[in-house]
């Protein structure tokens, strides 16, 4: 992998992790465009770690408030729930993704890795999900345990490359009536356990490989690109969800999906 490829793929990872267009799907398409036939596990670990850091950076005040509220048994301004309840909802939402990731990971990798046309089909599904949320979002209702569990199930489906994690979770939250800004914040906070879990699984796989194949400087370029673009995309998406303008991303996913299926 060259420095230029690491820069582009790092930017793609950071931007698409938080925008509702599927980071895993875009990485597969990007690798196909660059002609990369083998996965660089070290690069995956690096960019996933950088993405997690961007989430921690953007939501550092919320995370500190949750940790403080957990030990002091306080409520948090996220939705006036107790910090302990909110953390429990985050953990609950991560369970479906953990089950799917641990049981179906190898099958999904063999099914989608190196098959950008299949990723394109999943992007079309993402477009449909976004359009559904755009048109059918319900009245304002508070986040609670069962709604967090439903959003967690939506996150589990996003393990499929091409199904957007943020798109599916935010759409599910909006359809359940969760207020727009809270839907975005919960979507990004609940992403931390799956992102860190995926990174740990990749690190385990990395211990089985002996050659990195890429210089440290190239990995640093990819990490920096993923962190900066992830930070920008995370902040942008929060503002975007307030306006509920998801139709633009639905159109983009539809066009990208068709192009992947036809040309790749």
Descriptive overview:
By secondary structure, the chain is an all-alpha fold. The protein has one domain. 77% of the residues lie in helices and 0% in strands. The protein contains twelve helices and no strands. The chain has helices at residues 3-18, 23-34, 41-58, 60-72, 83-112, 116-136, 145-157, 165-175, 180-189, 192-206, 216-243, 247-263. The longest helix has 30 residues, at 83-112. The chain starts with a helix and ends with a helix. 44% of the residues are buried.
Strand content: under 5%
Give the ordered list of helices and strands. HHHHHHHHHHHH
Number of domains: 1
Please identify the oligomeric state: single chain
How does the SSE layout of this entry go?
Blueprint: H1 3-18, H2 23-34, H3 41-58, H4 60-72, H5 83-112, H6 116-136, H7 145-157, H8 165-175, H9 180-189, H10 192-206, H11 216-243, H12 247-263
Helix pairs in contact: 1-2, 1-3, 1-11, 2-6, 3-10, 3-11, 4-5, 5-7, 5-10, 6-8, 6-12, 7-8, 8-9, 9-11
């Amino acid at each position: 992998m060259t420095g230029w490829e690491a820069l582009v793929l790092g930017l793609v990872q950071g931007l698409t992790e938080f925008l509702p267009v599927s980071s895993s799907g875009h990485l597969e398409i990007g690798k196909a465009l660059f002609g990369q036939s083998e996965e660089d596990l070290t690069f995956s670990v690096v960019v996933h770690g950088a993405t997690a850091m961007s989430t921690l950076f953007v939501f550092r005040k919320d995370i500190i408030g949750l940790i403080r509220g957990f030990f002091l048994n306080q409520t948090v301004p996220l939705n006036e729930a107790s910090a302990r309840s909110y953390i429990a909802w985050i953990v609950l939402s991560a369970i479906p993704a953990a089950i799917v990731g641990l049981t179906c990971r190898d099958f999904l990798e063999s099914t989608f890795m190196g098959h950008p046309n299949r990723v394109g089909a999943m992007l079309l599904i993402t477009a449909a999900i976004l359009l559904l949320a755009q048109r059918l979002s319900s009245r304002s209702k508070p986040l609670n345990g069962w709604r967090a569990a439903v959003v967690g199930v939506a996150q589990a489906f996003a393990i499929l490359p091409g199904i957007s994690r943020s798109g599916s979770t935010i759409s599910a939250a909006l359809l359940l009536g969760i207020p727009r800004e809270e839907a975005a914040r919960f979507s990004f906070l609940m992403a931390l356990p799956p992102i860190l879990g995926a990174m740990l699984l990749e690190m385990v796989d990395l211990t089985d490989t002996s050659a990195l194949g890429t210089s440290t400087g190239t990995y640093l370029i990819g990490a920096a690109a993923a962190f900066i673009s992830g930070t920008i995309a995370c902040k942008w998406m929060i503002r975007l969800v307030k306006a509920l303008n998801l139709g633009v991303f639905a159109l983009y996913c539809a066009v990208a999906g068709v192009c992947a299926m036809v040309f790749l």
